[in-house]
Amino acid sequence: MARHRILVVEDEENLRDVLVEVLKRDGHEVQSAGDGIEGLRLTQDSRFDLVITDLRMPGLEGPALYEALRQQYPDEPPRVIFMSANTGIEEYARFLADTGEPALEKPFNLADMRQVVQQVLSRKPRA
């Protein structure tokens, strides 16, 4: 499997640590952030192939982070996977439908997460 640069943005520390560990074991180079503001700062310092982000976080939520990444890298934004226990909330459901980006419904199992990561990394980035 090819080595990719992945950023995990998740305010729940235990879940963030597990995701980072699993992705590193899969051979990826992984950084993490506890909120969208820190995640956005990290993307200004480095390019990532994939950003896995929570939809709901203190400070900068997932949708705002997504829009900021698209503005920051208009020609080739990083691929994004959202995760949330709130994908059924109307504003998030509409946002996810509009973007067409994949979402993992919490709680999810790690095998499903790894499969979605592989699928997303194997497709061409969206412009």
Uncertain segments are none
Our count of helices gives 5
Alpha-carbon distance between the termini? 24 Å
- Encode the helix/strand succession as letters: EHEHEHEHEH
Can you tell me the overall shape? Answer: globular
Strand content: 15-25%
Q: Give the C-alpha Rg.
A: 13 Å
Oligomeric category: single chain
Largest sheet: 5 strands, parallel
Helix content range: 40-55%
What's the arrangement of strands in the largest beta sheet?
2-1-3-4-5
Structural class: alpha/beta
Average of per-residue pLDDT values: 93
> Would you count the extended β strands for me?
5
Description:
The chain is α/β, with parallel strands linked by helices and 127 residues long. The protein contains 5 helices and 5 strands, in the order βαβαβαβαβα. The chain has helices spanning 13-25, 36-45, 62-72, 90-99, 110-122; strands at residues 5-9, 29-33, 50-54, 79-84, 103-105. The protein has a 5-stranded parallel beta sheet with strand order 2-1-3-4-5, with helices on both faces. Helix 3 links the parallel strand 3 and strand 4 (79-84). The longest helix has 13 residues, at 13-25. The model has no long low-confidence stretch (mean pLDDT 93).
